[in-house]
Amino acid sequence: MKKKTTIVGKDFPRVESRAKVTGAAQYVDDIQFGPNLLHARLLRSPIPHGLIKRLDTSKAAALPGVRVVVTGKDYPGLTGLYLSDRPIFAVDRVRFVGEPVVGVAAETEEIAEQALDLIEVEYEPLPGVFDPEYGAGPDAPLIHPDLANYAVAPFVFPQAGSNVSNHFKVRKGNMDEGWAQADLIYEHTYRVPHVQHVPLETHVDVAQMDGNGKITLWASSQSPFAQRNLIAKALGISHGMLRVITPYVGGGFGAKAGVSVEGACVALAMKAKGRPVKLCMSRKEEFYTTFVRQGLIAKIKMGMTNEGRITAMQNTYYWDGGAYTEYGVNITRAAGYSSTGPYNVPNVHADSLCVYTNHPIGGAMRGFGMPEIHWAIEQHIDRMAQQLQLDPVQVRLTNCLRGGDVTVTGMVMHPTGLAECIQKAADAIGWGKPSRPSAPHKRRGKGIAAMWKAPAMPPNPGSSATIRMNEDGTCSVGIGGVDMGQGTLTIAAQLAAEGLGVPIEWVRVNTVDTDYSPYEWQTVASRLTWSMGNAILNAAREAKQQILEAVADAWNEKPDDMDIIEGKVVSYATEREMSLKNIAVYGIQKPDGTWVGGPVVGKGKFMPTYVTPLDKETGQGPRAVVHFTTGAQAVEVEVDTETGEVQVLRIVAAFDVGHAINPDMVRTQMEGGAVQGMSTAMLEQIILKEGKPLNPTFTDYRIATAVDAPPDIETIIVEVPQDDGPFGARGIGEHAMVPTAPAIANAVRAAVGVEIDSMPITSEKVWLAMQSSDRASGSKAVVSPL
Amino acid sequence: MKLTIQMMVNGQPVTVETEPNRTLLEVLREDLGLTGSKEGCGTGDCGACTVHLNGRPVTSCLVLAPEADGCEIVTIEGLAQSGQLHPVQQAFIQYGGLQCGICTPGFVMAATALLRDNPNPTEHEVREAIAGNLCRCTGYDKIVRAILAASDVAER
After folding, report:
1. Is the pLDDT reported for residue A772 higher than 90?
2. How many CB atoms lie within 10 A of CB A55?
3. Strand ranges across the sheet with A295-304
């Protein structure tokens, strides 16, 4: 019989709350290094594409107070998570505005800045690529002539001699039959601009090399272990000689995954004669020099029957991967194996192309390709439903994946609550019920969108955990996962406490230090609750077994008759009890006066072992991914017909999280994701002109404030358990922003009949679309990207 | 040329020698070790560096240190009195009004200033009062709930 949980499934405040509300919580920028600290700045490329003809750093190096100057000649090694295409400093060629060319470390930041002005660089500009569709074609200049020589993961397929660094193909079913079965075939193109993650803490790093050559990097990072791995390889350092420490992290959203500026900081420290070197990204640098979300051009062709059944989809995704696609190639892969959206489509032809451009580097961002492709798919379904006079909710229920269905890559779908999420979101928003606008010149509309997303990662990313008991019965949990706000420390504490049988107050979870914390691949893909959670439960099981075996020996009982409950060892056979205090470290004395047990250290690991490769030409295979989290959002908007202004009045979010370890924290993920999704839908875009970002400030790139955010966000937790999740849990972090933008676009369409193909949905676009709609006397209007 | 600046910081008299072009935020963080106030932008747009200057909430990244001469400054570190959290801090914990925490000190300082001037704000007034503070994690709802709950506490 399944045991009732006492800690899992309950709302606990974040374990680190007190430190954060008192200002005591330390982030990298808060750590004091004293007067020995050097300050680093980077000279960056002012042009989007060109050859470095001459580089002279001698005047900078001679400036008093300058201690270190490094260039790409000093450290020419390439790095990258899935494709090694990225130098730490440009070597011979620059590929985007903002690319690091020279690093300087000096006694003060002002001196470092002055030194940058003294560096002489001559560039020979090259023609650039600023559109991924053009970039994928035969006429585009090559951005990476050496593409064929780069090291690459086995599931990424670069096309040598082109700008396509990955091409994921799906060829499923019979397209001719699919089109023949359709009563309506509709084709359209959608666009998504570059946006930035905007963590309120920018990237901050400090690196120091000691006298033995051992390097420590303090990094605001989602990936201490991946950074150790990639930087060690790129700079020729043994993994054991590089230590990464990550204290509290002020938001990540994918920006701090993989490696971006950390390598430059380490490279400078390696020449700084033992002095620590600090490199902080300014807000302007954060906007376009670390990672951005890739842009997308999505061409969707869909066939549908009069009853609303999808018969075929032909989707082409041109991803604007930017200058280096070391991480981005896997986003395009994820978009490929998820290319239909969460629907059962028998006939599919999909091409997801990662294209080099001379734009900022596309990297992981919350949703990892899913907000972008769902922007297209979820609007397309609504437009077809309208043409066929069908209810959008019903069309989604007709086609949505259910357990046992076959996904786009030929994987059998596990049990999922997707249909329940769609229905519950629709019910909660009052689907089909009238809602009167607040003024005669305003119109209201409701929209819905569904989603799916799998953890996008290699087939075998590992997690591990340790539980060490202390003298007083409390325990220290070691994890390699990072809490960047999503609640890892609290979830880890709940799982350890539940698994071990101690009160949550007895559990301390440590932040990451790769010298002492057990391995974790990366804090990405909404995978920690599931993967790290399993490792913690395994560690707890082992620690508990050590304790019970020792006590059973001392009491002359069987461990199977015993348990640990609320910090006490209890025997069901003899009804004896004993507190964990003292015995978990010192062991326990037997009746004959001898001792048994000793310091308890439990260890656990988890790694998925069942993911299979997919065929390169068809994208088909038995198991593309570990699982999918599914969900839906419904929104209600009010549009001002005089100004085009859109106000999001309500958002309802329903997601199948398998099992909520901490329901309140699941809801905060759903709320935060909804507002981030709304912010990207309504406000955000990095405006790029010939590769140059025009708005890298909070004045010109607005994110949603408390006034912009909808006052009413309803969250619905659906729980269809994950077979290999801890207590059935699946991830919910990224998913929460995936359907928001298309749900809003669908609501705007329902309100005033205009179609917005490109994010963001600005008042200007809506107003212009309404004008042309009026001129065309009631027919639908389509606005091209501005 | 360095200037001598005297301030009351969290109830303690403080004297600092500083270059005149440094900000109050830099002096608080670097000279006084009060790192609870954060720099999120350096341009006064994000509110993470909010402190009270003579009782008013200010973005300390936009205040030059000499401007604070003779002023009374309260930072996030000075809010809890003898280990007892301010009701706003308590409410942020209880209502989950924080995630990554980097913006939290700024929100707490903005909220405490609001509730002192307006002990019973409406939800709209709360949202207006924190519109100068950016948060990318929470979606603001739980922050707003926390501040409204703290206003009830203050009333009682």
Report:
1. no
2. 18
3. A164-172, A347-356, A310-322, A295-304, A184-192
Which residues constitute the domain of residue B146?
87-155
User: Could you tell me if B91 and B114 lie in one domain?
Assistant: yes
The predicted pLDDT at position A2 comes to 58
Residue at which a domain ends, from B78, B106, B121:
B78
Give the pLDDT confidence score for residue A776 in this predicted structure.
56
Say if residue B69 is in the same domain as residue B101. no
In this structure, the answer to whether residues A90 and A235 fall within a common structural domain is yes
Q: What is the pLDDT of residue B140?
A: 98
Please check whether residues B31 and B67 belong to one and the same domain.
yes
Is the domain of B73 the same as that of B95? no
Q: Work out the minimum CA distance from B10 to partner chain A, whole angstroms.
A: 13
C-alpha to C-alpha distances, A650 to A635, A669, A714, nearest whole angstrom = 5, 17, 8
Q: Using the beta-carbon criterion (under 8 Å), do B35 and A23 form an inter-chain contact? A: yes
* Domain extent at residue A371: 292-411+631-783
Instruction: Work out the burial of residue A537: count CB atoms within 10 Å of its CB; fewer than 13 is exposed, 13-18 middle, 19 or more buried.
Output: buried
Residue among A30, A249, A706 minimizing CB distance to B130: A706
Chain A: residue whose CA lies nearest to B100: A485
Min CA distance, B142 vs chain A (Å)? 8
Q: How many domains does chain B have?
A: 2
The answer, yes or no, to whether residue A780 has pLDDT greater than 50, is: no
Which residues in chain A are contacts of B93 at CB distance < 8 A? Answer: 13-14, 17-18, 21
Yes or no: say if A559 and A570 are a contact pair by the CB < 8 Å rule: no
Do B149 and B107 share a domain, yes or no? yes
Shared-domain flag, residues A243 and A349? no
A307 and A274 within one domain: no
B45 touches chain A (CB under 8 A): yes
Nearest CA in chain B to A35: B30
The residues pairing with A602 across neighbouring beta strands, listed in sequence order, are A467
Flag if B139 and A249 touch (Cβ within 8 Å): no
Active site residue A187: no
Q: Determine, for residues B101 and A250 on separate chains, whether the beta-carbon distance falls below 8 Å.
A: yes
pTM score of the predicted model: 0.97
**A771: Cβ contacts below 8 Å, ≥ 6 apart:** none
Tell me, yes or no, whether B13 and B73 share the same domain: yes
Q: Which of A90, A76, A110 is nearest to A44 (CA)?
A: A90
Provide the residue count of chain A. Answer: 786
Report yes or no on A191 lying in a domain: no
For residue B49, give both structure tokens. Answer: 């560096």
A707 vs B46, B127, B143: nearest CB? B127
The two beta strands, A475-479 and A507-509, are parallel
Which residues have a Cβ under 8 Å from the Cβ of B122 and sit 6 or more positions away? Answer: none
CATH of the domain at B11: 3.10.20.30
Q: Using a CB–CB cutoff of 8 Å, tell me whether B153 touches chain A.
A: no
Mean of pLDDT over chain A = 97
Q: Which DSSP string do the residues of A15-52 spell out, in sequence order?
A: TTHHHHHTT---BGGGS---TT-EEEEEEE-SSSSEEE
Q: Looking at residue A619, what is its pLDDT?
A: 98
**pLDDT for residue A781:** 45
Q: Rounded to whole angstroms, what are the CA distances from A499 to A45, A105, A326?
A: 52, 48, 38
- Chain B CB contacts of A673 below 8 Å: 139
pLDDT tens across B101-113, in order? 999 999 999 999 9
What does DSSP assign to residue B29?
I
**Is B20's Cβ below 8 Å from some Cβ in A?**
no
**Residue finishing a domain among B78, B108, B129:** B78
ipTM, two decimals, is: 0.98
Minimal Cβ distance to A672: which of B48, B99, B133 = B99
Distance from CA of A116 to the nearest CA of B (A): 21
